[in-house]
Amino acid sequence: MLLVREPEQALEARAAVAGPVGNERVQAFPADLTDPKAVERFADTVLTNHPKIHGLVHCAGLLLPERSLGPAGIERMFAVEVLAPYLLSLRLLEGLRSGAPSRIVMVSGTGGLRLPGTRRRLEPENLQGEVSFHPLAHARHLMLQRVLLARELGRRLKGTGVGSLVVLPSVARTRYLRHCPTHLRLLARALLLPGRATDPELAASEIVHAAIDPGLEGAAGQYLVGIQEAVPPPPARDMAAANRLWHLLEELSGVELDREDSAAEGR
Questions:
Q1: What is the CATH number of domain 53-258?
Q2: Which of 27, 38, 98, 212 has its CA 20 to 30 A from that of 123?
């Protein structure tokens, strides 16, 4: 099942995936990830159609030139890249438990956490760019948040049959920068997309590896660069910050992890 933003994109996405593999069971649904209510409606649709879920891949990204708020008053980039993955992961846990062994895969920007100027730590007061906002600095801060979220999910779900891990795939040519003016696209390519971009197929194969490789069963926050496990950079190893982010997301969303879902809670 695929999630895309616009109804017409849903038809295109389904055709692009179902056609080459000849699988008519592929489904694609539209949902606006900047709207928490739309995210929850999508989660309900998924569980209705698929009570057993074997994998959940968070790969949506958004880069905007200016700070703007979505339908619920939440900054749009943060809503898409951090809050929506948090909500979907928790809302779909029932299906993921039913489909265990299963796993949650968080896709993060390649190399972004290692760049000069990258946020050196989580900034709880500036999760949504409330204090200061520059699109590229905010994008790098969100990369850190995504990694911390996946690692905290891995900690809290350890031993439940639902794994969680992060993958930084190869740099690929996508439409991630489409909303930005030319000067910002050029700067973003230099800072956020280091190295030579490849066809999306290579990055996609690395994400699929993270989602289905038997050797990653029971993942508890592992960090992959391509298909190789690696040591996260220091900001992403700060589990106190990961726990702080988790509680901030709980407060913001009003959605919490049931104690029966967590084998690591309180450890």
A1: 3.40.50.720
A2: 38
Pick the residue with more confidence: 202 or 250? 250
This prediction has a pTM of 0.86
Distance CA 265, CA 142 (A): 24
pLDDT at site 116: 43
pLDDT of 219 over the 60 cut: yes
Residue 197 in tokens: 């971009």
Take residue 32 and report the two structure tokens written for it: 């606006």
> What are the angstrom distances between the C-alpha of 73 and each of 67, 78, 142, 219?
12, 11, 18, 34
CA distances to 22, 28, 31, 123 from 146, in Å: 33, 24, 20, 13
Candidates 199, 206, 205; CA nearest to 224 is 206
Rounded to 5 degrees, what are φ and ψ at 183? -65, -35
- In the chain, domain spans: 53-258
Distance of CA 64 to the CA centre of its chain: 17
Rounded CA-CA distance 29/23 in Å is: 16
Cβ atoms of residues 85 and 34 within 8 Å: no
How far is the C-alpha of 82 from the C-alpha of 61, rounded, in Å?
Answer: 10
How is residue 108 annotated by DSSP?
Answer: -
Write out the H or E segment, with its range, that includes residue 242: helix 239-253
Token readout for 134 is 């520059």
CA distances, 170 to each of 110, 112, 225, 228 (Å):
6, 12, 8, 12
pLDDT at 240: 97
Widest Cα–Cα separation across the chain: 49
Indicate the pairing of strand 102-107 with strand 162-168. Answer: parallel
